[in-house]
Amino acid sequence: MNLYLASASPRRSHILREWGIPFAVVPAETSEVMLDDAPEASARGNALNKALAGSRAVSEGLVIGADTVVVCEGRILGKPGDEAQAREMLDMLEGRQHGVITAMAGVVVPGGRTATRSTTASVTMRRLSDDERSAYLRNLEYRDKAGAYAIQGLAASFIEHVEGPVDTIVGFTMKDFYALCDELHVDVRR
Length: 190
What we know:
alpha/beta; seven-stranded mixed β-sheet; single chain; Maf protein
């Protein structure tokens, strides 16, 4: 069965390529909904909406959508709109533990069978110096990143401790991907 990724995220594409899984990217224009009192449900709903949007562009196959949210002190930190928001997010995250939830959803076309899964990882970010924070913000890595950082990038040096799968923090949890495939009775291991 053909696999389609309803995401323009280069990180998600990179993970699938690393695992040797053939796929194509399909557009998935949706509006993300973030509910501070239901971060996991928000991530699952967003992932499903992306997969459903992507499924309209294919005639046959499995369409995967994913969404990652960062949660700190009961507040969802999405993607910063500008440097000021990114700075505020880093200020909130540094020196404390926060959660990173990655949800994945699959839609089988034709038929429309769906399934969703999610995993949470716990991340502790160390305190940052003003110079570190400013240098990080100047390199623009924070753009398009939930919580304004990328653990697989320059911000890796900010992380003191991780509990849970690192690929969850990157935004594509392989164990959930394979569990979705099993649940939907789809074989992508060619």
